[in-house]
Amino acid sequence: MLELRKGVDILTDIGGIHTLDEAQALFAQRLDAKNQAKLARITNEEALLTIANSIAMCNPDNVFINTGSPEDVEWVRQFSLERKEEEPLKMPDHTIHFDLPEEQARIIDRTFYIVNPGEDISVLAKKIERDAAYDYVQKYMVGIMEGMTMLVGFYSRGPIGAKAAVPALEITSSAYVMHSANILYRNAYDQFDAEIERAGVLFKNLHSQGPNRPEDLPNARVFMDRSWLTTYSTFCTYAGNTLLLKKGNHRFAVDLATYFKVGEELSEHMFITGMTGPGGRKTFFAGAAPSGCGKTTTAMVGSDFIGDDLAQLWIEESNGTLRAINPEKGIFGIIKDVNWEGDPYLMKCLREEGTEVIWSNVLIKDGVPYWDGCCDDPPEEGVNFQGKWWKGKTDAHGNPIPISHPNARVTVPAEAIANYNREIAESPAGAPVRVITYSGRDADTMPPVWVAKNPDEGVAIGASIVSAATATEIGAKGVRRQPWANSPFIPGALGDYMKAQFEFFNSPKFSEGNRPLMSGLNYFLTHEARGGSGKGLLGEKRDVRVWLSWLERRSHEEVDAIVTPIGYLPLYEDLKQLFADIIDKEYPRELYDMQFSLYIDNLIGRIDLQAEAYSKEIRIPPRLFEVYKKQREGLMALKEKYGAIVTPDQLIEAGGIN
Ligand code: SPV
Ligand code: MN
């Protein structure tokens, strides 16, 4: 269980400012008249004390209050250029930011939840006792902004007024971080007091890169104080470590959903997108995928893009529908392998004038960015995340340095993406979601698409995601369990989170026909694993549209499916038709058989792996094991009858269609 406001609030204790009068006196002393006037608009005590204590602790030379006005937003852009945190590029409104070579992704080894004595956290996470965190903050953050300017921003994680939106403060000495926040989050300065009242909570984020030197990186930390909803980040610049409105506050939102809003809200690592179906109807999807597994690409495949990373979900009481908002309003997307064929909307923003873009950790040659997979003939030299680069350059271990880091990113406002549905994305009512997807990077086991037969099986799909390691976390290797693709951001016990999932998706609040379809997706099956004659992936990026379209039809009960122990599978004829209609592609029966045959031993291996791992965790709801047991028995019966590989025709014979 989690208790809010428990233990010492480190920031207040070190800052030493406890009353509004003290805070105002400090502002009068430390802010110039202009910034004092801007801050005067904010009256919420918690917000003001947080700002005052941050000033008292970090001791910046100047304080800049970012109201979100065009003038302030421009000031932040210019300040970042002046400070050389970003450099201008050839294209207007494009800049490049480099993180230190050793800090190109989330520093999971230096990321900790601050806990009170006796509190348990997820077995997948790291924790630090409150006293030890206090000592660190006192040692490294006192005076960390001397000689620097502190920037203070007021944001909302979600459309202002939406049920699941939460206001958040970003306090940083990095203009790059504030510039990124201005692109990725809605400024809520004008409504900040009212939003804190409405939401009943405020997320607080304090960051300083310090002198930004490689030698400080061992001391870099990302701390999340779950009890006080405050993050601390030091000696780093990569946005996933510093712009803690993103994953830092997502973790707090997961906590709130898990411990305080069970059966009411979820906070997920999901894209949100709409597909246009027959007759022009719009069907919205929310889909989870681990970092670096094509989540942004999938999101942009839809006709109505809403978000590519995070979703706050709730059940609307008045009509029993599932709603989703994107806490963000921009993308911080991986750029590796982004190209005109797979990502035309994004490419337009990146290669044509008219969009504000912050590039990070790509190759720059003559003011133009290039990246791994960008083009057929990238330049053979330039400047990249490791400094001066030339083709064939190797690192200290003799490994070739790629043209761009595999976790190189672009920060782009969502409204620049041509298929962004601004109206729905900005609506406090959220997007009406009918389909939930879960996916991972799975070479050999799960089919490209399948649908859960009931909410419990749907929760089990989310619980069972596995994925090959990607470049988004430093030091991650091998195939790992990735529950709900959200596990890096689940602070508490997985069992608690899972219980909230079961309650939410089984909720009696869903009205007839509005309980979402829950499904799995896997784009990563290989020829080698499925008896194919080719090499590499069985499918192509563009096939994603077909899998989503099939789910779209299924969610409106327009296509039948094969009933199998793991869920419903598409029929060949339906897919063939969709491939032809939607992407004008031939879909051979042989490929279908490779993709949708059940490889029983792999599936059983997967179930056993999960059941075994979950059996070691606390408070796992027994329902999960019941689902696994039933699926396992069904699969064993199939194997008995048909052998280790069961084709779709055999599956129809055994289970029929529905
Ligand atoms: C991810 O890695 O899941 C991201 C980028 O979306 S980060 O901000 O690093 O979390
Ligand atoms: Mn993410």
Note the main attributes of this structure:
single chain, 658 residues, alpha+beta, Phosphoenolpyruvate Carboxykinase, domain 1, Phosphoenolpyruvate Carboxykinase, domain 3, 2 domains, nine-stranded mixed β-sheet, binds sulfopyruvate, binds manganese (II) ion
Shape field: globular
In CATH, the topology of the largest domain is named: Phosphoenolpyruvate Carboxykinase, domain 3
Structural class category: alpha+beta
Unreliable spans: none
Instruction: Give the number of domains.
Output: 2
Distance between the termini: 42 Å
Q: Can you list the ligands bound to this structure?
A: sulfopyruvate, manganese (II) ion
Q: How many individual helices? A: 21
Q: Major sheet: size, sense and barrel closure?
A: 9 strands, mixed
Structure explained in plain terms:
- The chain is α+β, with helices and mostly antiparallel strands and 658 residues long.
- The protein has two domains: 10-85 and 99-259, Phosphoenolpyruvate Carboxykinase, domain 1 (3-Layer(aba) Sandwich), CATH 3.40.449; 265-330 and 422-655, Phosphoenolpyruvate Carboxykinase, domain 3 (Alpha-Beta Complex), CATH 3.90.228.20.
- 33% of the residues lie in helices and 23% in strands.
- It contains 21 helices and 33 strands.
- The strands form eight sheets. Strands 1, 4, 5, 6, 7, 8, 9, 10 and 11 form a nine-stranded mixed β-sheet that branches. Strands 12, 13, 14, 15, 16, 17, 25, 26 and 29 form a nine-stranded mixed β-sheet that branches.
- A hairpin with a 5-residue loop joins strand 2 (87-88) and strand 3 (94-97).
- Helix 2 packs across helix 4 (45-58) and helix 14 (455-463) runs antiparallel to helix 15 (494-505).
- The longest helix has 21 residues, at 622-642.
- It is globular.
- It starts with 9 loop residues before the first helix and ends with a helix.
- The site of manganese (II) ion has 3 residues, from loops.
- Manganese (II) ion binds at residues 269, 291, 309.
